[in-house]
Amino acid sequence: MNKLSVVLGKYAHAQPLLDGDVAIDGYAVEPVTVEPVIGAYRRMIRDLEFDVCELAPTSYLMALQAEVALTAIPVFLNRRFHHADVQCSAKSGLRFPKDLEGKRIGVRAYTVTTGVWVRGILRDEYGVDTDSITWVVDDDDHIEGRAPSNVERVTDGRSLGELLRAGDIDAALTGNAGTGRAGAPVTGWQATPGEPTGDEGPYPLFSEPNVLATDWYLRTGIYPLHSVIAIRSELVQRDPELPTALYAAFAEAKRRQVAADPQWSALPRLGRQAERIGGDPIPYGLKANDASLRALVQFSREQGLLDPDFPGEPPSLFDDGSYPDA
């Protein structure tokens, strides 16, 4: 039986596949632990180090454009809304999205998927000229050479959280895309402590982010993708049925988890998102994700990460396998 080295983040809905409880026809899974899993993205894109690896969707699209030998299936293990992700420095005086124009905003790297979604929302929903913003970064892009001239690198060793608290940047993204960590995504990556809010520290740009995010989803059908499953293309060339078999295994693993935990208590954030969208918090497949995939390609083109003629039809982004919505 062939072996597949597989790198995924910690998801209850994928664990049955890693444990071997859900089989992939003709293959035995060999789980590989990389913490944080973001550290595996670069290794997969640059060195094709693993057989199957979770990737950031924007990084995969850029790798596809660069003709990296990777093939994806439409499995998206994580989803997040982003209206809560912009935090403003207590010294900034920012009140409205348009106030961000001409300011300095921290993000781990320009091409991180959270940054792509946030810039797209600011531009499309609030008319923000995101090109006028200086994007302050403290890490490398997985695929280099596409960041625009309005990107500035931190050079004094401070984290984005430190810069935000000091007022040396006007705003920053939260979590792994910004102030929620320090340093490059390697073993020992530091999670930063919780930050004071209100008068003592950063405050959110949007006071009712959940209401705004839900309204945006109901109007547009866009449900931001985070993580996609990529396979080394060599394996697909050798076995064209592998993408279909792998997709079926991920779908079965998710089905089992939902049957055992229909309220998503193992991942409460996804449970809350299920209530907000009134459905499956992590839909797989092409039809269910059409609007989200088209939006991500559009935003990536507008932000210079993909060429204007990069194909935007969702089926062209994935292997030609069988992917019924699951």
Verbal overview:
This protein is α/β, with parallel strands linked by helices and 326 residues long. The protein folds into two domains: 2-79 and 223-317, Periplasmic binding protein-like II (D-Maltodextrin-Binding Protein, domain 2, 3-Layer(aba) Sandwich), CATH 3.40.190; 86-220, D-Maltodextrin-Binding Protein, domain 2 (3-Layer(aba) Sandwich). Helices cover 32% and strands 15% of the residues. It contains ten helices and 15 strands. The chain has helices spanning 15-19, 38-47, 57-65, 113-126, 160-166, 209-220, 233-238, 242-260, 268-277, 290-302; strands spanning 2-7, 27-31, 52-55, 70-73, 78-79, 86-88, 104-106, 134-137, 151-153, 171-173, 181-182, 190-191, 203-204, 225-226, 228-232. It has a six-stranded mixed β-sheet with strand order 9-8-7-10-6-13, sandwiched between helices. It has a five-stranded mixed β-sheet with strand order 2-1-3-15-4, sandwiched between helices. The chain has a two-stranded antiparallel ribbon with strand order 5-14.
Notable characteristics:
D-Maltodextrin-Binding Protein, domain 2; 2 domains; five-stranded mixed beta sheet; six-stranded mixed beta sheet; 326 residues; alpha/beta
